[in-house]
Amino acid sequence: MSISVIGAGAFGTALAISLARTGMAVSLWARDPNHAANMQNTRENTARLPGVALPDSITVTANISEALADTMLLAVPMQKMRDLLKSTPELNSRLLVACCKGVELETELGPVAVIRDCDPKATPAILTGPSFAADIARGLPTALTLAIADDSLGQSLQQALTTPNLRIYRTTDTIGAELGGALKNVIAIACGAAMGAGLGESARAALMTRGYAEVQRMAQALGARPDTLAGLSGFGDLTLTCTSDQSRNYRFGLSLGRDEPFDPQITVEGAATARAVKARAKHMNIDMPITAAVVGMIDHNLKITQAMEMLLSRPPKEE
Ligand SMILES: NC(=O)C1=CN([C@@H]2O[C@H](COP(=O)(O)OP(=O)(O)OC[C@H]3O[C@@H](n4cnc5c(N)ncnc54)[C@H](O)[C@@H]3O)[C@@H](O)[C@H]2O)C=CC1
Ligand SMILES: O=C(CO)COP(=O)(O)O
């Protein structure tokens, strides 16, 4: 099986490094020719993963025809995925593995559904779960979920992606995997805001737990399996992202809670996803008060203290 990586940001670079460690020759495609040339020459992604050397078996290129493989890992932000697929017809009809976490704003679809929508002949999959790019790149122990409908193809891909430090679990539940990974980012923003405003660890635990209840309500209504949501791609990634300031979503939340500016160039998937999920929840009549509060903070200048007051004053419920 030949595998290439599309998108030379933090995660794409980390995945290419991980694959190279299996002994595979890997192409890493960057759309910006200067970025590609710089990485190819310096053997480093100085912008996103400074200090981590690219193994010799990685070729970085901006020429898509040099990066084509049976299997393509798509490591671009969720809101750019459709643009990538539409502008790169060379990717058509392949095994396309989404390596992003989010829900598309315009369509309210997750990454697997967007691949299906753009390219009905592609075989879509998703690689997701708790992992920081820097940890994978440094070879620290990590476990991810690979979701793909065809389980025998899943077994081959699982083997190809596994390294001594990267353990891959497999599922056929693409809906659960893509929604768990997308929705946890929204909850991480809420947790960061609570911590940034000094509301305390107990408030964060409440937001994580009730946030997980929201994830389950939405994802199960869309056909996700509960065991997937309880696994790496759901509960696992929620835990990591809501508790680590390595997470950009959490840090974005911290800045909201502290009333500080945040660099708009940094990829924060949970912001657009919160808007998309709030809209979808409304269409489906699903109660998602924490997601609504995050949209309030991002779009309507709601303060986390006000959001918390609203959450606390809701009518009493059974758990
Ligand atoms: N950084 C991390 O620790 C992890 C990130 N992810 C996910 O990976 C996805 C990408 O995130 P990062 O790599 O961290 O972001 P990043 O901001 O470091 O890199 C994104 C890359 O996508 C490229 N890109 C943007 N639009 C494009 C287009 N239309 N065509 C081709 N390339 C395009 C950009 O040039 C950039 O190199 C996100 O969905 C994120 O949630 C998942 C796990 C870990
Ligand atoms: O998805 C991630 C961890 O699993 C990375 O989180 P951020 O996108 O918030 O940095």
TrEMBL record:
Q: Can you say where in the cell this protein is located?
A: Cytoplasm
Q: Where in this chain does the record put each Glycerol-3-phosphate dehydrogenase NAD-dependent C-terminal domain?
A: 173-309
Give yes or no: UniProt keyword Oxidoreductase.
yes
Q: Which reaction does it catalyse?
A: sn-glycerol 3-phosphate + NAD(+) = dihydroxyacetone phosphate + NADH + H(+); sn-glycerol 3-phosphate + NADP(+) = dihydroxyacetone phosphate + NADPH + H(+)
Q: Please tell me where sn-glycerol 3-phosphate binds in this chain.
A: 101, 129, 131, 184, 237, 247-249
Which residue range or ranges hold the Glycerol-3-phosphate dehydrogenase NAD-dependent N-terminal domain? 3-152
Name the positions where NADPH binds.
11, 31, 101, 133, 248, 269
Q: Where does NAD(+) bind?
A: 7-12, 133, 248
Which parts of the sequence bind substrate?
101, 248-249
Keyword NAD found: yes
Q: In which pathway does it act?
A: Membrane lipid metabolism; glycerophospholipid metabolism
- Locate the active site: 184
A GO molecular function annotation here is: glycerol-3-phosphate dehydrogenase (NADP+) activity
Pfam families associated with the record: NAD_Gly3P_dh_C, NAD_Gly3P_dh_N
The superkingdom of the source organism is Bacteria
Q: What does this protein do?
A: Catalyzes the reduction of the glycolytic intermediate dihydroxyacetone phosphate (DHAP) to sn-glycerol 3-phosphate (G3P), the key precursor for phospholipid synthesis.
The record's family statement is: Belongs to the NAD-dependent glycerol-3-phosphate dehydrogenase family.
What's the protein here called?
Glycerol-3-phosphate dehydrogenase [NAD(P)+]
